[in-house]
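Sorry to interrupt, but I need a hand with the structure work. It will help me judge whether the discrete encoding reads sensibly. Write everything out right here, beneath this request:
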Amino acid sequence: MLGPDDRRRAEIEETEMTEKADPAASFHPVSPWSYPVERYYYPWALAEYIANPEPSDHSIKSTVVQRLKENPHTKDDTIKVDVKQRVVILGGEVSSWLAKRAAGDDAWDTAGVVDVSNQLHTPEQPRP
């Protein structure tokens, strides 16, 4: 009766005989830069990205403007909003430091924003 080691030895001998007969038959090209797909593109992260793609600059801007209009601290102020590569830039003059802080917080709390440049100034603050 043959054991597992004997069967494996027989398989190796059979493979060696095939390789001697036709060396090209045993050639299996492998890329020197083969990367396992799951190592770099985790299925759970890819599924989440497909389900929730990053918002565009236009959608971020419209969301920030809507939030500023609904906020009781900023609804009476004229605030210029610009978005470039998911960075929100707030400009203009607001009535108080609380309105400036509230506008910055509204921008930061918007989905997809990576940075906020709060360039708002109050009447008591000199312009830069």
